[in-house]
Every structure is written in structure tokens, then in C-alpha cells.
Amino acid sequence: MRFKHEPDVTLALVNAQCRFAGFLADNGIKTPALFLADRAYARWYTIRGYDVIVTVEAFAAGELREVSDEIAQKTGGLLARMHNIAQAGACHVPGGVLFDPLRENDLFSFAAFRRHEAFLRSVDGALYRGIAEEYHALLQRIRVFENEPKYAVQGDISNGNLYQTADGEIGVFDFNRCGDAVLYYDAVMQAVFEARLMDYPKEIAGKQERLILSAFFRGYHRERPFTRAQQEAFPYLYAMISAFWRGRIQFDEDSLCHAAAAGDAQAARRRMEEIRGRILSRPEMPL
Hints:
Residues 9-226 form the Aminoglycoside phosphotransferase domain. The protein is mainly alpha-helical.
């Protein structure tokens, strides 16, 4: 049983998310069954004076606790099949997603970098200006897919939302972040999310990114081949994600934002030099 009361969540949105999950299940994707009440998946209930949207779904055993290269490859294949089904069925869910690279998102933030513009220019104006110019050049490179059709995506492929069946298949649950996205952007952003922010077996933890990325993309490419244009755009999108990664920009103890807030010019310069290095690093898509 799930309870929802976020300000941006409506009954119509939750029902649309549930219908999409059901459509995926009808087309072979492992996802827990959702139960209907009066021909709707979601209904308002008042519980101790608190209004909530309620949905009920079957329990999924086998929740994944960590991501290995084998799991990453299966997850990439799962995401590709979900994308294929969504596109073939012209599926849409009227909601935003966490990982749209053309807007503020949960993985990286140029806006957080720019908020400290005055201080960073005082530290090294040429360095700041060069980073900003590179960002806008990267943005133009990846905008080539901006007007592609958007389709429904689950929106949060993480080990906490995945499970493995007794026969080794990977299934997915939790469609709370489901919305419409450009499928290529979703594939790359989800892959980096999977490669950086999950729990991993101890033998690869700390050095897992390239291994997990490669496995994820191989699994995806096998089910939904990346076009030449998509492969050529990857280095620029990856550079943007890496350069403005929220952890290094905002959240880590030694982040750029913390250095700027403390007025630490030396630390801020080091962080900007790191950003410049990452923004100029353009690795090919590891297939």
C-alpha cells in the first residue's frame, strides 16, 4: 500500500502512472500487479484527518541491494525494453522527471555553479568564463534531441526500485517519478545514476563507474541500438554531467558551493580547475 500527498501529485497523475506500469506488465515487463477499486488504481482517503492518495500493489520479493556488472547489463536491457514498449504504445504520463538534462535535475546543476558567479569571477574571471562558455557549447551539442517525441518512462531505475525473480529476471517497481522524457536522455542519465549512486559489490566499489556504465549500455544497446548521432552526442552529455555533478558542486563537504560560501578562494579555484578538467574530458560511449 502506498500513500501520496506531495503538492505536485494529483489523482490523475497517479492513475496515469499506474496505467503505464500495467501496460508494461501486459507487455512482458516484470512489475508488481496493481489493484483496481471502482475501475481506478488510485483514490483519495482521509486517514486521521489527513488526506492521502492511496494505491495498492502486490509485494515484490527479491529487492536488489547492490548493482554488479551483471545486474547493470540486465537493467540496461530492461530499460531499453521499457522504452521500446512505451514508444510502440505511444504511452504518455503528464508529469515531469528527475533526470532531464536540459533542465534543473537531480544529477547535475549549472545553476548552482552560476549562483556564485560574482565570487568565482573574483577568484579567477578567465577560468569562470571559460567554464561557462564550455557549458553553453556542450548544451548546444546535446540539444539536437530536444524536439524528439517524448514517451513515458519509469524515471528512477535504482537498485532500491528493482528486484530479481527466482529465475534471474530483473523487475521494476515504484512509478512515483514516472513522466514523459526524451528516451535517449533518459537512457544516459539513468545509466550514470546507476553507475555512481548505487551500492556495489566491495570488489568493484570505488572503481565501478566505467564497468557499470559499459555493462548498462551494452544491455541497452542489445535491445534498442543507439544511433550514430546518439553515440556521438554521449561525450558531450557525459562531460556536462561530470563537470556539474551535484555532489561536487553542492553537497560534498569540500564542494564548490561550500568553498564559495566560506569565501575560500584557494579551495574554490581548485574546484573550478576540477570542473574545467571534467568539462574537457569527452570519453566515447562505452559499448
